[in-house]
């Protein structure tokens, strides 16, 4: 989980995560603090001491803000597990959904290629302007990239650690995982999940800022996909 200036949300989110651990295989929880300046790090340390079941909580910290995709890569690269589950740290995602998303990933792995599982937010608890902006962005991405995902920027995802680390790194990567993983032959599974109002604080993104960066990144992803050349099979002779 990546966090930036989410001090007030840390304890309740950690409590919800701890409540889900009994429904999951043996796992670890990793937080990446992307250079917060509001005491988020102190609250993470407090959660590790006071929230039952989180004494093994791992906390990684950037010395300065590097962006959500960079923070995700830090967490995933340092994770020890084979499967990765991601959620946001603002309380809008419900951790109790993770076990079912993981089950979908494990089921797909048993019958073929392990998938990317995306928890799609069909009913979003955001302002009308943010919902409209997201709807437009998702429609544009689907039209251009044909990623077959109705909510490609959804924070709640489950996938193989190896599949993520195979991808080229750039800021904004997290918004294009379905399209990029599709290029690497990773199948997609979507499941509707609950979406809640932010517990405390405000979003780190404005609609205009997301739109400007999103169009630039979209063009970059088109270029990356067109330049990716992968063999169907590899044989050692």
Pattern of helices and strands: EHEHEHEHEHEHHEH
Beta-strand fraction estimate = 5-15%
Average pLDDT reading: 88
SS elements, strand count = 7
Radius of gyration: 18 Å
Sheet/helix structural class: alpha/beta
Strand numbers in spatial order across the main sheet: 4-6-5-7
As an assembly, this protein is: single chain
The helix content, as a percent range, equals 40-55%
Count every helix, treating DSSP H or I runs of 4 or more residues as helices. 8
What is the 3D shape? globular
How far the N terminus sits from the C terminus, by CA atoms, comes to 42 Å
Low-confidence stretches: none
Outline the biggest β-sheet. Answer: 4 strands, mixed
Describe the structure.
- This protein is an alpha/beta fold and 237 residues long.
- The chain has helices at 10-20, 40-50, 68-78, 98-111, 128-145, 161-165, 177-183, 207-227, and strands at 2-3, 30-33, 58-61, 83-86, 116-121, 157-160, 188-193.
- The strands form two sheets. It has a four-stranded mixed sheet, sandwiched between helices. Strands 1-2-3 form a three-stranded parallel sheet.
Task: Give keywords.
237 residues, single chain, 41% helix, alpha/beta, 3-stranded parallel sheet, 4-stranded mixed sheet
How do the helices and strands line up, and which of them pair or pack?
Elements: E1 2-3, H1 10-20, E2 30-33, H2 40-50, E3 58-61, H3 68-78, E4 83-86, H4 98-111, E5 116-121, H5 128-145, E6 157-160, H6 161-165, H7 177-183, E7 188-193, H8 207-227
Parallel strand pairs: 1-2, 2-3, 5-7
Antiparallel strand pairs: 4-6, 5-6
Helix pairs in contact: 1-2, 5-8
